[in-house]
Amino acid sequence: MREIDIEIVAALNPRQGLTVETIKSRVGRSDRAVSQGLRNLSETGAVLTRGGLFYRAESLEPVGNIYALEAKVDDWRKGVRQAFRYRAWCNASALVLSRMPKNREPLISAAHRLNIGLACEDQWIVRPKICKLDRANRLRGSEHFVAALSFSPVRYPQP
Fold first, then answer.
1. Which tens digits make up the pLDDT trace of 16-68?
2. Is the Cα dihedral 130, 134, 138, 140 positive or negative?
3. How far apart are CA 84 and CA 33, in angstroms?
């Protein structure tokens, strides 16, 4: 899903319909962007329309908690950056190394500061911190997960 699509779906509820105006105020996007997003989402069945109100398809829920592990052989700095980027859509992320660098302190300090886990071989050096994500980021993570599994697009059943 596009960013706007995720924001729209996250703003909706399967049991309480919303008007376009309410959706626009919740996502803070233009009338055109919201209208186009609702049209696209309605075509896929992710959003349902009844009586001028919009509902999220009941089956469209985040897949659960998502944990990301970034494995690196040499360049731990790139690994730290990537594990940190995963935090935007994962409940927890960690960097896994095959060996620790000679000077471990900058790496351990970065892991603590950025709230990412750090493991070397089969041992945690810094345990990852698990955080709750808002609905939009949970949906974003679910989309990443489903896309990584190479599923074909899902058609949501109409009520």
1. 999 999 999 999 999 899 999 999 999 989 999 999 999 999 877 777 788 99
2. negative
3. 29
